[in-house]
Structure formats: C-alpha cells, structure tokens
Amino acid sequence: MSLVLDPAAQDLLFREARTANTFTDEPVTDEQVQAIYDLVKYGPTSMNQSPLRVTLVRSAEARERLAGHMSDGNRAKTLAAPLVAILSADNEFHEELPQLFPHFPQAKDLFSERPVREGSAALNAALQAGYFILGVRAAGLAAGPMTGADFEGIRKEFLDDDHTPLMVVNIGRPGPDAWFPRSPRLSYEQVVTTA
Length: 195
What we know:
This protein is of the alpha+beta class and about 200 residues long. It contains eight helices and four strands. A four-stranded antiparallel beta sheet has the order 1-2-4-3. The longest helix is centred in the middle third of the chain and has 25 residues. The two termini are about 20 Å apart.
C-alpha cells in the first residue's frame, strides 16, 4: 500500500528532513511563524489540551542570555540561527479547556491537581512540539531541535513557574555543511509487535 501524501511532501517532512546545525542569515518572519502555527494547531492532543507554548527569541541580547544556558555544543548554533524558539508546556492549560473542549464542560475539573496537569501537559506539549518541527519543515525551513541545555535556568530566565521548557529549536534556512550524515534507523520488525 502506498501513502496518500505526495512523495515530494514525504521527503520534505520526513525522508530528506534533517536537524540543521548551520543556518543562513535570512530572517524568519513573524508571518512564517504564524503560518506554521496556523497549520500545526490542528494536530491532535488528548482532549484538545493544546499545552504547547512557544517563546520566540529574536533579539541579540535575549539570544546571548539563552546561549548561556545551552550546552557547549549548542551555544554557537543558538547564536547563529536567525530565529530560536523555546518550546514549553503550560501547566495551567486546563484553564483553556472550557474553550477547547466545550462538549465536556467538566473537563477542567479532571486536572485540578498540579501533578496530574504537569504529566498531561508534558506529554501533550511534546506531541505538539513534534507537530511544530514538521510545520517548520512544511514552511520550507530547517529546524534544529535541542535538549542539551540547563532547562531550569531557561525557565527562570524566560518563563515562569507555570511553564516547563521542553526543548529549544533553531529555525531558518540551512547554511553550509548544515547536515551530519544520516544516522541509522530501527527497522519495522524492531519496533512493531502484534498482541
């Protein structure tokens, strides 16, 4: 069986898509970011929770502050990318559930305890972060998602106690030597079992 998605789109989103390590200096516009969000907001989450929050880091001063929290191997990339996004989980996402899940008015009450909210926010925001990366690729841009960072420092510097940072994503057009060689992938048989 073949996929419905056009092979060129399959390549753009998956097969040819790679984590970019260098970028050109071509800016990423607010209009591009809005188009990315307007596409990926439709990706499914549990009960339409939508806890992902995106903090765009554009200014040189903010970029320097962020770079100070990145691991050694990620600092230069963070400083050089035209746009950097901090993706975080909003642990108070349940406040939006009356709007986002209106056919179940009691949905908000299911998340009255903070540990329950944090677990659900982390899982669903991570799912949305994957959609966000695909959206960046769909916009013809490259993404460089990174988890090598002092996330507690990032939270204190850029967020608040109600937001848990998940990853930092460099965004832009790929620069020279942007890609490492393609790493191996697991086979279907290694991943899929039948019960």
